[in-house]
Amino acid sequence: MTHATQAYSYAGPSTLADGRLGLSTSGGTALSGPQTHPRFFSGLLSQAAPAAAGLLAVADVALARYHKPRPGWTRDPVVTCDGGRLRFESFSACGGVYARLDVLELEGDVLDRGTTNVDVNGPLREALARVGGRDPLHLGVGPDELTVTTLDGAVVEKKVPLPTRWLRGFAEVQVIAAGFDLRAELSGPHAVRFLRSLPRSARATVWAVPAGRDLRVSATPGRGGVCLSGASRVTTLMPLLRFAKALRVYGPADGSSTASAWELELPGMRYTLAVSPEPWRGFSGEGAVLADLATDEAAGDADVVGMLLNFEPTVELGLLADRSGLPIGRVRAALTQLGTAGRVGYDLHEAAHFHRELPYDREQVAELNPRLTAARALAGSGAVRLLDGGDAAEVTTDGGVRRVRVTEGECTCPWWFDHRGSRGPCKHVLAARIAARVAVEAPV
């Protein structure tokens, strides 16, 4: 696995003292331009205890490695301010769990809009765990709000290895989530009872199956059920149950054994947790982005659509289509392309994309998607022979000739037999589709 390295440089450590939470920021992109230590918000959170618990839950995922746990992971959460809310996001080191806290009720001054990392250090975690009661909490996102406890205000620096699978996971989650439906919604007491009934085993695979207005845990699939593999991966929901007003469960419309998302409605905020189909299976290998990335127009369209993004609370496809002059399908593919650079996410509750900026760029797309790189190499080398008017193909590789059904996405390679499309198209299907598109577009 290849790694990039991200360096954080904070003006001082984040602190919580006397009801004032100061989150130190490190680099980022804002509407006003690139910032070394951006300031986004200064004001009150009306519900201190759930806000502290929710931020701690996001930080817990950022520190976790659910598959083959081992120490050494020190990733800091990402925060995006869109003018009306704050979104805190993190990803587990193993790439199989994504967390987001949406703080919906802000009372104070929005100083800018944009995205940055925030320092969540050991002492701050301990302080967040002690927050209780209903008193409001003053929050500052940016260095001017910090209560610096060191005498000299020393700079805090961290260097963090970023696995490529972690970076790819952010892109995959937003595409996969866009295909989810709301499968169940429980009131607070029902949500507490159901979540506490889940097994604690890291290897347990269960189904959440609707039963009237409730959910029951089942060892086998049921009508309308949602799969949860590695049930212990939702443990960050548990400390939030005392604040829960509702639980919403999202999954694919066909009820297949795949990823799922779990959303707790909290006072003035929402906490969302998405988990991959298996504990050992990170989102990075799901291949949901590949079909859109393989189109010739995606990169150019992404440049056009990207210029129209302004950290809006929701990104409306129809509005982007009108402004860009592109059809909806190409706008959706452009958002996928932007997602590979961390520039868009997906909000299940809003059923809409949102804009953010993560610290990597489009030039890394080829490295982050080796299947697509291999497919383009096959198509460019003449390894693809189209048959039946382009609906079938033979792809010649070092391992032999692979026969492809282009529209259905089927192939005779071991990858397809192992996954049968559940983890996106194989490189041979992608190569055949690229070659078929080139043949259609070639002048007569």
From TrEMBL:
Pfam family, one: SWIM
Cross-referenced InterPro entries: Znf_SWIM
PROSITE patterns named in the record: ZF_SWIM
Domain SWIM-type: 402-437
Keywords assigned: Metal-binding, Zinc, Zinc-finger
UniProt GO molecular function: zinc ion binding
The protein, known as: SWIM zinc finger
Source species: Nonomuraea jiangxiensis
